[in-house]
Amino acid sequence: MKKLFLTLIVTIFISTVIVVGVLSTVGYETAKFNNLITEKIKENNKKISLKLNKIKFKFDLRNASLFLETSEPNLSYLSLKMPIETIKVYLDLVSVITSKTKIDLIDVNTNKISINELKKITTKTKPSNLNSFINNKIENGNLKANIKFYLNDKQQIQNYIIRGEVKDMNANLINKINLKKTNFNFFADTSDVIIKNIKSETDGILIESGNIQMIKGDKIELKSDLQTKINIDENNIKNYQDFLKYPRIDENKIFLNGKLDHFLSITFDKTYKVINYNYKNKGKIKNLSLKLKQIIKNSLFTNEINKFYFKDTEFNAQYSSDKNNEIIAKGKYSFNDNSYQDFNFKNKFFKSNYDFDINLDISEALKFEILNYEKEIDKISNLIIKFQKKEDMLLVKNFKFTENKSSILINDLKIVKNSIVKLKKAKVKTYDKNNVTNDFNLDFGKIIKIYGNNYDSKNLSKLFNQKTKNNIFNKINKEIDIDLKNIGTPLSKRLSNFKLIGVVKKGKFVKISAKGDFGNNQYLDISMKNNKKGKKKYLEIYSDLPQPLLSDYNFFKGLVGGNLTFSSIIEDKNSSSKLIVKNFKIVNAPGVVKLLSLADFGGLADLAEGEGLSFETLEINMSNQNGFLKLDEIYAVGPSISVLMEGYKEENGLTSLRGTLVPAKNLNKILSKIPVIGNIIIPQEVGEGLFGVSFKMKGMPGKIKTTINPIKTLTPRFITRALEKSKKSK
């Protein structure tokens, strides 16, 4: 009995193994479930038609479940045949036993589908963004997929899982940006869409790997990471010109080589409206070169800049909806074709507001004109700047420039709408070789205090004479106190013990009292007062050395010695002024020499080139209205020659002068024949000879044209001024 029972058990076991083995490998062919499968599929989608040929009944050992399998079924969607390789239908075991067959899962494997075949299918489906992308953007490629449909107790699709791969896909993303040789795996269900192992390339950009995930719920989340190699040059940059919105950059002269990793996350609502986003990238720029269409001219840089270079640069950037935007870079850079230097910068920004920190070494030639300080090319300096910008406000927290022993430090400089409103402190010390050229401090408190040992002011007058649309000091209303031991002035003159007290309103002096010492009992005295109503200012300057005050004006080139008195009435942008210089010489002044030569005053021209022409007095009466300088009268008289001129100078530099030039011997001859009392009448016999020349000078600076005409008669105005001078000298 035991033997029989054991035999029975072994037989059953072997039979079961054989049945399972057959079902799990070969299967059992049956047509019993054909109608069941076709009807269930039709119930879920009326547009699908399915005809089955052979169906095999099989057993899944791994999942311990029964399933039906058919190969190459005739499945159509809206009469369009689908490229299906196999269909597996998993059955509920209990339902099979009870003859109430229930389907748990439909597993579909596709054949390789070309993109062109897929487009035929998508045109039959409901319009969507995905369908539009497939039909309009994808050009070619192949797709293979596995689709699992999970059915509930009511035999309706409860969930689905789609897996597959895409190979050799080409697609047009934006304008000329084309993806080529694109491969990836994908996964999708009711809650997620995942694209993995992305490999692709476009012109100049290689995607080595990457993933994209979309999580669907109350909100939709999109996450991606891509690892890219970049090699942009003049051959492929044209495809990216639509993205280069920087007008200074020559799009055809860009080279970029590097490796960057990209990370993106976006959250949408159910209408695909962006709720928040965050984009990061990091990597290393091996080489980057930019050539500019428009050169950069900056007062700080001696030379123009038309090329940028970067190499071995670590780069990190972040852009997010929570205003946490940041760019960090560290590496080497170069302007034009100069040597590479280290730089490090960090920029936090949102729209037009940002915090900027930069630390860089500089090999470029630099110039600080207000200090008359220049840094030679290839002498390495360091610049550290920390500043904030918020709308119309710029706050320079720290500015530090160092080059060898020279340094320029500025703290808490605040600029609002291009006007300085605050400056805590500045400290300057510069060298020319081993000589100190600047050594002073500036404290910006209740009173502006400038004090120290040295200030090089050689370029100061040039800066004051520059035409600017905006006075950056127009919000400053303070008293000012200046105490400088030595001031360097043009022509190597030095002003010592300079002291100034004054008042500044709206960035302009309204009151000045200043004195300085040129040495050898030669002094400078400046005074400015305003009237009670404050609309007019009265400026007076006296100097025992005129040259430092006049050196920047070509008209006074060659002036030596003498003393200067200047008085001016200033009202808003208009002024009326008078300049007097006494007892001076004109030595080797090209304009004067040329004029005398053209007038055929050869002896005087030689004298002007040699020991110089002496003058007793120069008087200039002039007025300035909104930049238009009217020279009402320029009169100079000397033992050798006298001149009377008038003219104007426009804001653009155009100068026009006309006048009369008469040698002293001729002038004296005329004056001797004029009655001391009565009307000024030039006797006829006086006009028998030539008395001098009239001349005209007109043109832009450096291009002034001079013409002359001999004259026999002097104007009454010239005679009047000559007589006035003659009476004063007696």
Summary of the model, kept short:
The chain is mainly beta. 15% of the residues lie in helices and 58% in strands.
Question: What report would you give on this structure?
Answer:
The chain is 15% helix and 58% strand. The chain has 730 residues and is mainly beta. Among the domains are: 23-174, no CATH class; 616-729, no CATH class. It has a 38-stranded mixed sheet that branches. Strands 2-5-6 form a three-stranded antiparallel sheet. Strands 22-23 form a two-stranded antiparallel sheet. A hairpin with a 2-residue loop joins strand 32 (508-519) and strand 33. Helix 8 packs antiparallel against helix 9 (602-609). Mean pLDDT is 80; it is low at 677-689.
The tally of helices reads 11
Question: Which of globular, elongated, flat, extended, rod-shaped describes the shape?
Answer: elongated
Strand content: over 45%
| Structural class estimated from helices and strands | mainly beta
Low-confidence segments, given as residue ranges, are 677-689
Instruction: Give a short account of the largest sheet.
Output: 38 strands, mixed
**N- to C-terminal distance:** 166 Å
Q: If you compute it from the alpha carbons, what radius of gyration comes out, rounded to the nearest whole angstrom? A: 46 Å
What key phrases describe this protein's structure?
58% strand, elongated, 730 residues
Secondary-structure blueprint:
Layout: H1 2-25, E1 28-30, H2 34-44, E2 48-51, E3 55-60, E4 65-71, E5 74-77, E6 80-81, E7 84-91, H3 93-97, E8 103-110, E9 113-114, H4 115-122, H5 129-136, E10 138-151, E11 157-174, E12 177-189, E13 192-202, E14 205-216, E15 220-232, E16 249-268, E17 274-296, E18 305-320, E19 325-335, E20 341-350, E21 353-362, E22 366-368, E23 373-375, E24 381-390, E25 393-403, E26 406-416, E27 419-432, E28 435-444, E29 447-456, H6 460-465, E30 478-489, E31 493-505, E32 508-519, E33 522-530, E34 537-543, H7 547-550, E35 559-560, E36 563-571, E37 574-586, H8 590-598, H9 602-609, E38 613-625, E39 628-637, E40 641-649, E41 655-663, H10 664-672, E42 692-699, E43 705-711, H11 716-729
Parallel strand pairs: 29-30
Antiparallel strand pairs: 1-3, 2-5, 3-4, 4-7, 5-6, 7-8, 8-10, 9-10, 10-11, 11-12, 12-13, 13-14, 14-15, 15-16, 16-17, 17-18, 18-19, 19-20, 20-21, 21-24, 22-23, 24-25, 25-26, 26-27, 27-28, 28-29, 30-31, 31-32, 32-33, 33-34, 34-36, 35-37, 36-37, 37-38, 38-39, 39-40, 40-41, 41-42, 42-43
